[in-house]
Amino acid sequence: MSFVVAIDGPAGSGKGTITKLVGDKLNLINIDTGAMFRCVTLDMLNKNIGISEEQKIVDLLDKIDIDLREENNKQKVYLNGEDVTLEIRTQKVNNFISPVCQLKIVREKLLNLQRKLAEGKNVIMEGRDIGTTVFPNADVKIYLDATPEERATRRVKQNKENNIECSYEEILNSIKSRDYQDSNRKIAPLKKADDAVYVDSTNMSIEEVTNTIIDIIRKKQ
Questions:
Q1: Strand pairing partners for 146?
Q2: Contact present, 22 and 210 (Cβ < 8 Å)
Q3: What is the C-alpha separation between 159 and 151, in angstroms, rounded?
Q4: What is the rounded CA–CA span in Å between residue 8 and residue 194?
Q5: pLDDT for 44-63, tens place per residue?
Q6: pTM across the whole model
Q7: Which of 90, 100, 149, 169 sits in a 20 to 30 Å window from 159, CA-based?
């Protein structure tokens, strides 16, 4: 038996942070699907593979090794044996990730991997289509949201903490562009599942959002 919590939402809504906190408190395994797509994007950028080069993308997906590890109470992301935890959050990846996420071959490869990672486990998984596509029968579905302006402010703060230089205006424009692309893509678009609980975190602290989501989950356990 397994118990699956699906948290969906747009870029910068706090899914990664909240998923980690909730997972730790409820002893759920945290699977960061966004990091997986970012690894594919980074690998394509590093190898100068374009969106239209389907065979090269297929070859890349056949060989790619993505590993999510817990180290010193922090999630580390490894791509082909290299720690890319910070690199996958840079603006160059942000600018290229949405077209990559729209590729059917990429989504199919990662969909199978995500489902395999969750088999027989109690997991919490965040992304944009977890409750609608990856796990449409998830035990708990949550759609975590916030205004684009609030999400941009959070991303600026996060980037400063990681010594990544990027202006508020650039991040805000990137977020709005990503929202549009993610919501309008043909394959697995970003949208709230009909049975998902909507949580607007715009004026909430991290602790308040965490406690709200824990309460929602406990009612289903």
A1: none
A2: yes
A3: 12
A4: 12
A5: 999 999 999 999 999 999 99
A6: 0.81
A7: 100
| Pairing of β 140-145 and β 197-200 | parallel
Q: What secondary structure does DSSP assign to the chain, as a single string? A: --EEEEEE--TTSSHHHHHHHHHHHHT-EEEEHHHHHHHHHHHHHHTT--TT-HHHHHHHHHH--EEEEEETTEEEEEETTEE-TTGGGSHHHHHHHHHHHT-HHHHHHHHHHHHHHHTTSEEEEEESSIIIII-TT-SEEEEEE--HHHHHHHHHHHHHHTT----HHHHHHHHHHHHHHHHH-SSS-----TTPEEEE-TT--HHHHHHHHHHHHHTT-
Judge whether residue 221 has pLDDT over 80: no
Tokens of residue 152, six digits: 């941009």
Place of tokens 């975590």: 144
